[in-house]
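Q: Could you write out the predicted structure for this multi-component system? I'm mainly interested in how the pieces pack against one another.
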Amino acid sequence: MNEKVLTRYFDIPHLYNIDVYLEKGGYEAVRKALKLKPEEIIEEVKKANLRGRGGAGFPAGLKWSFVPKVDKPKYLCVNADEGEPGTFKDRFIMSHNPHLLIEGIIITCYAVDIHLAFIYIRGEYEKIARRLESAIEEAKRKGFLGSDILGSGFNLEVVVHRGAGAYICGEETALLESLEGKRGHPRLKPPFPASVGLFQMPTVINNVETIANVPLIILNGADWFLNLGKPKDGGTRLFSVSGMVERPGVFELPVGTPLRKIIYEYAGGIKNGRKLKGVIPGGMSAPILLPEEIDVPMDCESVFNKGSMLGSAAIIVIDESVPIIEVLRKVTKFYSHESCGQCTPCRIGTSWINKIVERIASGKGGKGDIEEIERLALQIKGRTLCPLGDAAAMPILAIVNKYRHELEAMLPQ
Amino acid sequence: MSAQLFEIIKKEIEAIIPRYPKKEAALLPALHVVQRKLGFIPPEGERLVAQLLEIKPVRVREVVTFYTMFTRKPLGKYLLQVCSNLSCSLAGGELILEYLKTKLGIKVGETTPDGRFTLLTVECLGACDQAPCLMVNDDLYGQLNKDKIDDLINKLD
Ligand SMILES: Cc1cc2nc3c(=O)[nH]c(=O)nc-3n(C[C@H](O)[C@H](O)[C@H](O)COP(=O)(O)O)c2cc1C
Ligand code: SF4
Ligand code: FES
């Protein structure tokens, strides 16, 4: 069996309670980190090749090192928006072990010289937001947050900030706008948030799971972390597996575990012994893989080389009983609903494609509809302000390419 | 809104503001306070928030209309939000929605005449391992089937 590291104690009842957490060695990583120099922490995280768990897979240590060492306020925004369809791992972390996240936040902020951190959590996670708030209160009472943490002279406040139902606010610059009290309209990059972020100040944005890995790296070292995963992609990943499998759930496995193994061994295989039709390997934005493509190791590079992406490591399994048009309907409806509307190709393109797909689904498709979908998707790709445009275009193009015959059979000949 | 409720909302928002480097950053949390206390965000709620955060009312309106969780009209006592995304649909989410529509006698977006239930669909709720699922106000319910829906609706007064 594989060793769990991040989720090691998640089965213990009331782990979210600080006393239980402390019994399990909680906050030891913070004690250790506060005795290190901030640069040493950044170096260690860099060496560990901790890649972002939110979607883009950018190395966390490198991101932190881009933050200028200037004497002005800097911020950390923890991305707990978890809107990528198929993803439910951050919910898992925050509901079972909020203190692990808080520990990660303290260490990250100490390393980057930040004194105010926000956890931007999706509005639907109201109960988890409350759990985080009580964990923060507990941590404060024990002296792990607030001023002069454990006598180190380091100060930190953490604020839980609730979103209000907009997938686009998971995109990092939209998240910043939203946190500033505005509509969630992504900003043009560069400048990157590390130099110009929240209220124009240097800002680090990381996913919940990314930050939750930091205490493990500090306690056990970069080499240990690298050994768990792949040389360029350390650690484990929390795979959210859903769809037509016998045992849906979150599975913590080494980075690089083959997709086939995750589906057939850990998630118990396809439901009711049916045949596999396709797998979305990294959340809805990730292009679908065919049954013959699932021997891919689940690390950022390998999945990318298969023409898809590891994204948020959310695996959605589709079996032979599901008409591909139903998948396409859900994908296109989602993006047309969630486009923020700033760029014309994304706003118009996604809803237009969705209309064509609905038409085909209702049996009223026409000749040339598939080519039209492709044409529209290609007009979105690479031509939008934020990555949502590509995130919509690429899975649509992959479905159309890989299941063309099935779709064509729905049209008049 | 009664003067008393007005004061309660005002106090809660005033307690939130100092957590932020700038007042206007408290806009989303302030609107959540209004919606939680009143069930929706009426124009006078928008005005109060604008005044407390020292921003133009039109800025508040812009934000209220952008975010799907904010509502400018009253909802039923119980807000039922059925997930309509992929994993839930694969698990029969659409049947759940149809069943609820028939059972409650309303369409998506409507409220029952007695004001008890409002029915909506939502995108992925981040609970796909429990598909098909729905939220009733702040509570999540998963692995739904017709019997569970019957039980659930019966338990809500
Ligand atoms: C449309 C869109 C939605 C996103 N949603 C999320 C999200 O819900 N959670 C998240 O952590 N990252 C999300 N991201 C990725 C963030 O922009 C950003 O890359 C990430 O939070 C950085 O953290 P990481 O490097 O630790 O992964 C999204 C990106 C896009 C383009
Ligand atoms: S690509 Fe779409 S979501 Fe992104 S900024 Fe443009 S319109 Fe908004
Ligand atoms: S698809 Fe319904 S919770 Fe994710």
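A: Regarding packing and overall arrangement: The radius of gyration of chain B is 18 Å.
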